[in-house]
Design goal:
three-stranded mixed sheet
Length: about 40
Amino acid sequence: MGTIVCASCNAMIDTFDDEKVSVLFAQCPSCTGEGETKGEE
């Protein structure tokens, strides 16, 4: 069992079936386009 976690807010995005227990980091929809670029406007 694996989980996909948001790299920005650490929220669990999704789970997937795998032989190993693993954690993958991605960005959730609420963090995409926010944060890093927010102060540049």
